[in-house]
Write a structure and sequence with these properties.
homodimer; 146 residues; alpha/beta; five-stranded mixed beta sheet; globular
Chain lengths: 146, 146
């Protein structure tokens, strides 16, 4: 397992331990994690802090050249909002844990020249399958389909 | 002036008074403002709290049916990230103060069936023109082009 995907999974597990939606993300610049985060809908009552958005928030204000030389790892295929943030800051590469339980805007990323890799990791799938089974209403709220 | 666009402009002015980027937004559901916000890059050191995102955050967790029956007002054409949030929650209508100083992803909104209206308001244009003249580096950071 790639250490950065493992770090994203660790974030997802932290979210699960807090009673939240188990999706995690890290942003890596030149081999170093500059931002890590996990979905905070439940914990902070936030509709915008998806895992990737929380990683951006925790990376803080960065120059454009840092984003453009970074990779974002996320345990789940990025939704429209997170895809938009990746495009805004021109992150050139996205590594996705799984797109089996949810397929986000991967095509829009590719159409804009972003390199997209899907690992299809069983741990990531397991975390989401369990969560969706136990809390379908929270999951649907998170992707705007409740 | 539409009272809701005026409320978005009031948010932009609040941001300016705080030394921030003067962009404001409100989300309106059935004639009532359910979330208001302004860009907080400077004030909170946030790369994700654009005006629209701050309005979503302040609206808090809402059922999908509320978003799908809401209008978002923003003083400036929405960037990729804010466009993505609007699409995630399927807000059907966006009213934009101006797209003279910055043209965001209006086409992507329209391609996804969102009704887009651009007011081209002189107050909104004036706020951004002044800010970009005085703080070009902050503005470029905000849209990932510094």
């Amino acid at each position: 397992m790639d250490i950065f995907m493992q770090a994203a999974i660790d974030e997802a597990k932290k979210g699960k331990a807090e009673g939240g939606i188990p999706i995690g993300s890290v942003i890596v610049h030149q081999g170093k994690i500059i931002g890590r985060g996990h979905n905070r809908r439940v914990q902070s009552g936030s509709p915008i802090l998806h895992g990737e958005m929380d990683a951006f928030e925790n990376a803080g204000r960065q120059p454009a050249k840092v984003y453009r030389d970074s990779v974002i790892y996320t345990t789940l295929s990025p939704c429209s909002m997170c895809t938009g943030a990746i495009l805004l800051y021109e992150i050139p590469k996205v590594v996705i844990g799984e797109n089996h339980t949810f397929q986000g805007q991967e095509q829009l990323l590719k159409d804009n020249g972003v390199e997209v890799t899907v690992v299809q990791d069983q741990q990531c799938i397991g975390l989401m399958e369990e969560f969706i089974r136990l809390h379908p209403e929270l999951w649907h709220e998170d992707i705007g389909t409740d």
